[in-house]
Every structure is written in structure tokens, then in C-alpha cells.
């Protein structure tokens, strides 16, 4: 199997890998006995922001680990590979937030199944975009340092907004009626 096809498999496997890591992350705060350090990488309530935080970190971890493990063997192109977490987080966030708010405010309907479907759709569409971006030479990668800077800016934003949630719907946990961390 040629190297490009193996890279495609890693991109498609990201859907499963990120889903598994996100599922683990979803419960990590509780499993850690509400450890304050774990709270920075794991959801601490049921708000939309906390779920974006959950899959953002797991996406970064998935693509970082796959690059470390498979870069030499599959001859992965780091300038393009390093963009995948940003592409995936952006596309998946758009799907998750859009689905949630459209169904909540247009149809007065919320459902965990719909939330999971929006997450899967976001991951699927982002993997298609990543695959196309990776194999198409017309799409020039942005400089590696800029990609790393965007990733760190994203992480800093997640940490900041986790510690200082704005009093808007994105940060509100409807289930527990709070903006704060929930420790049961």
C-alpha cells in the first residue's frame, strides 16, 4: 500500500480515534475525583463550551500521537499534518454549535443523540477536508510555526475561558443550571 493511502487511513481513523479519546475525556474529571489539573483538559459541566474543550484536546492529542508514531514509516508531511487539528476543531465546532443552537432555538429540541450525530458529522466532514488538503498540491500549507502558534493560541483560549466563563449560553450548563464546574 502506498504511503499516501496509509496517510488517508490515519485521517479516516481520526473519526474513531477522536471519538474514543473524547468519550474517555468526557468522564475523566469525575474519574479523577474532580482533580483541578484534569479540569483543564476534561469537561467539568455539560455546557457546549466544555464539549468543544473536550474534543479540541483529544483532536490535538490524536494528530500529535499519530504523527509521532507514523511520520517516518508513512513519510507524513508535517507542514500539512500539523494543520489537521485546527481544521478538525474548527469544522467540528461549527457543526456541534450550529446543530445545538438551531435545534434548541428553532425547534425547541435538544437530544444527546443529536449532539453525538453533530459531533460525528463534524469529524467526518473535517476528515474529508483534511484528506483533500493533504493530497492536493494546490493547497499550500501555512508555515509550521504559524500552525503551532495557532494551536497554542487555541489552548490558551480554552484554558482562559475554562477559568473565566463568559455569562453567555455557550458556557451555560442547562442540565445543572450553572456556568461553573460541577462536582457531585
Topology of this protein?
Elements: H1 3-31, H2 48-74, H3 78-81, H4 84-106, H5 112-135, H6 144-163
Please tally the helical runs, counting DSSP H or I stretches of 4 or more residues.
6
Multimeric state: single chain
**How are helices and strands ordered from N to C?**
HHHHHH
Radius of gyration: 17 Å
Task: State the separation between the terminal residues, measured CA to CA.
Answer: 50 Å
How many β strands by DSSP? 0
Strand content: under 5%
Instruction: Report the mean per-residue pLDDT as an integer.
Output: 90
* Structural class determined from secondary elements: mainly alpha
Shape: globular
Question: Any overview of this molecule?
Answer:
By secondary structure, the protein is mostly helical. It is built from six helices and no strands. The longest helix has 29 residues, at 3-31.
State the main characteristics.
single chain, 184 residues, mainly alpha, 6 helices
Structure, briefly:
This protein has helices at residues 3-31, 48-74, 78-81, 84-106, 112-135, 144-163. The chain is mainly alpha-helical and 184 residues long. The model has no long low-confidence stretch (mean pLDDT 90).
Amino acid at each position: 500500500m502506498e504511503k499516501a493511502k496509509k496517510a488517508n487511513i490515519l485521517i479516516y481513523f481520526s473519526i474513531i480515534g477522536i471519538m474514543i479519546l473524547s468519550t474517555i475525556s468526557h468522564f475523566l474529571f469525575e474519574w479523577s475525583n474532580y482533580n483541578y489539573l484534569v479540569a483543564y483538559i476534561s469537561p467539568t459541566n455539560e455546557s457546549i463550551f466544555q464539549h468543544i474543550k473536550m474534543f479540541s484536546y483529544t483532536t490535538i492529542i490524536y494528530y500529535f500521537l499519530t504523527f509521532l508514531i507514523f511520520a517516518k514509516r508513512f513519510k507524513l508531511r508535517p507542514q500539512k499534518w500539523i494543520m489537521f487539528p485546527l481544521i478538525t476543531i474548527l469544522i467540528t465546532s461549527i457543526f456541534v454549535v450550529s446543530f445545538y443552537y438551531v435545534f434548541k432555538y428553532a425547534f425547541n429540541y435538544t437530544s444527546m443523540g443529536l449532539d453525538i450525530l453533530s459531533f460525528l458529522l463534524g469529524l467526518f466532514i473535517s476528515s474529508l477536508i483534511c484528506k483533500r488538503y493533504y493530497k492536493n498540491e494546490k493547497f499550500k500549507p501555512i508555515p509550521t510555526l504559524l500552525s503551532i502558534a495557532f494551536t497554542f493560541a487555541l489552548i490558551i483560549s480554552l484554558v482562559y475561558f475554562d477559568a473565566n466563563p463568559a455569562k453567555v449560553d455557550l458556557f451555560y450548563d442547562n442540565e445543572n443550571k450553572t456556568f461553573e464546574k460541577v462536582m457531585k
